[in-house]
Design goal:
Structural class: alpha/beta
Largest sheet: 8 strands, mixed
Strand order of the largest sheet: 3-2-1-4-6-10-9-8
Helix content: 25-40%
């Protein structure tokens, strides 16, 4: 795995999948597609990598100028890998936060601190089933309930292509869906309630 572009372009992320519990990492093609959709102007945008695993998606966001970037990985060995790599690269300072929490705890903490994000990336372990997968709805409902997205913010779900995701979850609306082989990206945006005219 390598950083695709930005100030960390070309740096290798030496994450050994087998060493860290046969972790499933985001293919470079999907990572490139994700950031192509998000666009080139990411400087100063806030980014939450909620199921960070190797940390590569959050690192890509960091390389492209996002700040703050929050990494959350509940598995201790993977968390330590990200922490060690960011420290080695001198990227563990201001504008970077790293947590070793279950996703729900991380979201509650961000809510308690009043933090809202321009982008939240969700790549939890795949459930390779056809049809609805309730866990995605649950995470998106928490994002909505805890008011974690900025007014024009978006949540992106990386998922198995045969999963079905809802068109609408609270104030979140599915605005784009792209398929890449057995992987897919679902883009949700926050929509503000419209106050009826008097």
């Amino acid at each position: 795995m390598r950083v695709i572009t930005g100030r960390l372009k070309g740096r290798s992320i030496p994450f050994n999948v087998r060493r860290y519990g046969d972790a499933s990492v985001t293919p470079d093609m999907i990572k490139e597609a994700l950031f192509s959709v998000l666009g080139g102007e990411l400087a100063g945008k806030s980014f939450l990598d909620l199921f960070a695993c190797s940390g590569q998606v959050g690192i890509e966001a960091l390389s492209r100028g996002c700040s703050p970037v929050v990494f959350n990985e509940k598995e201790r060995r993977r968390y330590e890998f990200i922490r060690g790599l960011l420290g080695e690269w001198g990227e563990d300072g201001e504008g970077v936060l790293l947590f070793n929490f279950p996703a729900s705890r991380c979201m509650r903490l961000m809510h308690s601190r009043g933090v809202r994000f321009d982008y939240i990336f969700l790549d939890r372990p795949y459930e390779k089933t056809r049809g609805r997968v309730p866990v995605y709805r649950g995470v998106l409902e928490e994002i909505d309930r805890h008011d974690l997205l900025a007014p024009a913010g978006g949540a992106i779900v990386q998922h198995y292509v045969h999963n079905e995701l809802e068109e609408s979850i609270g104030s979140l609306r599915l605005v784009d869906h792209r398929v890449y082989g057995t992987n897919a990206l679902a883009f949700y945006e926050r929509t503000e309630a419209i106050t009826p005219a008097e």
